[in-house]
From TrEMBL:
Keywords: Coiled coil, DNA-binding. Signal peptide: none annotated. PROSITE patterns: HTH_MERR_1 (PS00552), HTH_MERR_2 (PS50937). It comes from the Bacteria. Residues 10-80 form the HTH merR-type domain. SMART domains: HTH_MERR. Residues 87-114 form a coiled coil. The keyword Oxidoreductase does not apply. InterPro entries: DNA-bd_dom_put_sf, GyrI-like, MerR-type_HTH_dom, MerR_fam, Reg_factor_effector_dom_sf. SUPFAM superfamilies: Probable bacterial effector-binding domain (SSF55136), Putative DNA-binding domain (SSF46955). One of its GO terms (molecular function) is DNA binding. This is DNA-binding transcriptional regulator, MerR family.
Length: 283
């Protein structure tokens, strides 16, 4: 502690930094941006000296930073020294942080869903899952777009018009790319020329124009493993199963891309879930 004036005790920059566990460089920066000026600067040495009143502002600054305030926001709070200003800034910060939480939750959902797809595909490949099964699809909300289809799966899954469409309409999505064909027969015969591309909506923004709400639906499902060029064989397997078990198929069909060009360019690792609505035939 250093005495510069007889009745005023001042701390050197080193003493102030040590007391508050921050660096001298930080104190110099705070001086430069006007957040915390020293009380005295020696004309001979250029050394900075701080009063206890100013040193006590450093814990306040540190706590503001912990709460997520930027330095310019902290400057506003300290310089105005008003309870109203503090209240107003806290309300704004709480709103900002809540928006960040929502955004992080959306990002976590997207990453988690992609990770789950990789685990799903690994199970299908290692457990040799190759039989038709039946299940109910739960109600869901999707973003969707109608577009032309040319049987080029690389550009249908990594779909530039679709990505641009989502960005232009501020729609956040998660999970696998899904293609829905109005006619399973046309899909099998490769005469379908339009498709509905969709992905699960994750954003909290309300844009009902882009939303498609699906209802609970019974489907026959089969994982197609490998190149999409051979997917007809998997469709035929579903048809054979339906005939054997007395089910009507279609008319629609759905292809859900568990592992595709988004994750790998090796077609041997591709996993596509084919889903076909089914209904038990009446006797």
């Amino acid at each position: 502690m250093t005495d510069i004036h007889q009745n005023k005790k001042l701390y050197t920059i080193g003493e102030a930094a040590k007391m508050c566990n921050i660096s001298r460089k930080t104190l110099r920066y705070y001086d430069k941006i006007g957040l915390l000026h020293p009380d005295e600067v020696s004309e001979q040495t250029g050394y900075r000296y701080y009063s206890l009143e100013n040193v006590l502002k450093l814990p306040i600054i540190k706590y503001y930073k912990q709460m997520g305030f930027k330095l310019d926001e902290i400057y506003e709070g300290l310089s105005r020294n008003s309870t109203y200003i503090h209240e107003h800034s806290f309300i704004n910060k709480m709103t900002e942080l809540q928006e960040q939480i929502e955004r992080l939750n959306e990002q976590l959902t997207a990453v988690s869903d992609w990770y789950d797809l990789i685990q799903e595909a690994r199970f299908v490949l290692t457990a040799d899952v190759n039989e038709v099964s039946i299940k109910y699809l739960p109600p869901e909300v999707y973003c969707f777009m109608e577009q032309d289809f040319s049987y080029d799966y690389s550009s249908s899954t990594i779909n530039i018009p679709w990505v641009n469409f989502l960005e232009d309409n501020h729609c956040e999505i998660t999970g696998p790319v899904i293609l829905e064909f109005d006619s399973m027969t046309e899909r099998i015969n490769e005469t379908a020329n339009t498709v509905k591309i969709m992905q699960k909506k994750v954003s909290s923004e309300n844009n009902s124009v882009l939303e498609m709400h699906t209802s609970r639906e019974l489907v026959a499902t089969l994982y197609h493993r490998g190149d999409h060029k051979n997917i007809k064989q998997s469709y035929q397997k579903i048809l054979d199963w339906a005939k054997k078990n007395n089910y009507h198929c279609g008319p629609r069909c759905i292809e859900r891309f568990v592992i595709d060009y988004w994750t790998t360019t090796n077609p041997d690792e591709f996993v596509t879930e084919i889903m076909v609505p089914v209904e038990r035939k009446r006797k």
